[in-house]
Design a protein that fits this description.
The protein is α/β, with parallel strands linked by helices. It has two domains: about 1-110, Nucleotidyltransferase, domain 5 (2-Layer Sandwich); about 115-309, Nucleotidyltransferase, domain 5 (2-Layer Sandwich). Helix content is about 35%, strand content about 25%. Strand 13 (about 260-265), helix 8 and strand 14 (about 285-290) form a beta-alpha-beta unit. Helix 7 packs across helix 8 (about 270-280). The two termini are about 30 Å apart.
């Protein structure tokens, strides 16, 4: 049992298929943490109460508990309506929902919605706001530019004066995962994608060809069958096509890369592919530890909450 320090907080990232909880000290360090597969999509309300009871039993005496992600969606404990971009950390705090999960007071953080300026298209995120504002709280974080969160559903966000003003989501990660596990293209995938000549070729063609991604993806199979692409390079080429198409969308929807490196918040191997793709088109990138950004995000929200209380 870890008796809570009065200054500590608890931050919970509660998605549809996973649960991550952190006990965080005033300096933003994780004193303790645990994870499980108990996402809100797998639990009824009694199950959600049981998870919070588990948190409180592990870290008794800590009063300020924040929860982000799908726990605040229409399949979660309580729906926290999206905050409409442009949004800064203090705007997000004003939309937090105070609730009780069982006997425990929990502050549910809302997601963010936007309509992009370039095309009027709507988009939404829920959970990623913690990492975004955690990164922006860092002293060396630029106040303007682009931030990417590579993953199953990659987010590209435009930041102006420290505010999230607009963003878009690409499901290229989910597409790749599904293609590599089943279907026609699974038969040509052999091994993991790597940053190299085949990947760079895919990035260039995905970004510049002008063809629809469906056509390009089938073309990868034709290249293997016709001997234009080695089977061992197919995974790298396919990843390159998908990420290259994303980079084309970045230019169309959010604008060109600036001089500052694009922060990439996510797991190392995937972020390294994105970094290689950005560098291949003349940009620069740097990888940000997602857990550190997450911890900093909860601390930033807590500090604003305490200040306005």
């Amino acid at each position: 049992m870890n008796r809570g320090n009065a200054a500590d907080i608890i931050g919970i990232n509660w998605g549809s298929s996973a649960f991550r909880a952190y006990r965080i000290d005033s300096e933003g360090a994780a004193v303790d943490s645990f994870r499980s597969g108990d996402g809100v999509g797998t639990l009824d309300r009694a199950g959600m109460e049981a998870m919070i009871e588990r948190v409180v039993a592990r870290w008794p005496g800590i009063e300020r508990i924040y929860a982000s992600g799908m726990i605040g969606s229409n399949i979660g404990w309580v729906e926290a309506p999206y905050a409409e971009a442009p949004v800064a950390a203090h705007d997000l705090v004003g939309r937090v929902i105070d609730t009780r999960i069982g006997a425990t007071a929990v502050r549910v953080v809302p997601g963010i919605a936007c309509r992009r300026r370039s095309d009027g298209g709507p988009d939404i995120l829920r959970g990623e706001e913690i990492e975004l504002f955690g990164h922006l709280a860092a002293s060396d974080a630029p106040r303007d530019g682009l931030i990417a969160l590579p993953g199953t559903h990659t987010k590209w966000a435009a930041i102006e004066r420290g505010r999230l003003v607009e963003f878009f989501t690409s499901i290229s990660g989910e597409l790749y995962d599904r293609m590599s596990q089943a279907g026609l293209l699974a038969s040509i995938i052999d091994g993991a994608a790597e940053a190299g000549a085949a990947f760079a070729r895919g990035v260039d063609e995905g970004r510049r060809s002008g063809l629809a991604i469906g056509t390009l993806l089938f073309g990868a199979r034709a290249r293997v069958i016709r001997g234009d692409l080695e089977r061992r390079d197919a995974a790298s080429y396919l990843r390159g096509l998908l990420i290259g198409a994303e980079l084309a969308d970045v230019g169309q929807l959010l604008g060109a890369f600036g001089e500052a490196p694009v922060p990439l918040i996510g797991n190392g191997p995937l972020c390294r592919l994105y970094a290689a793709a950005i560098e291949a088109v003349g940009g620069a990138a740097r990888i940000v530890d997602p857990e550190r950004a997450c911890l900093a995000g909860f601390v930033a929200l807590d500090r604003v909450s305490v200040a306005v209380a």
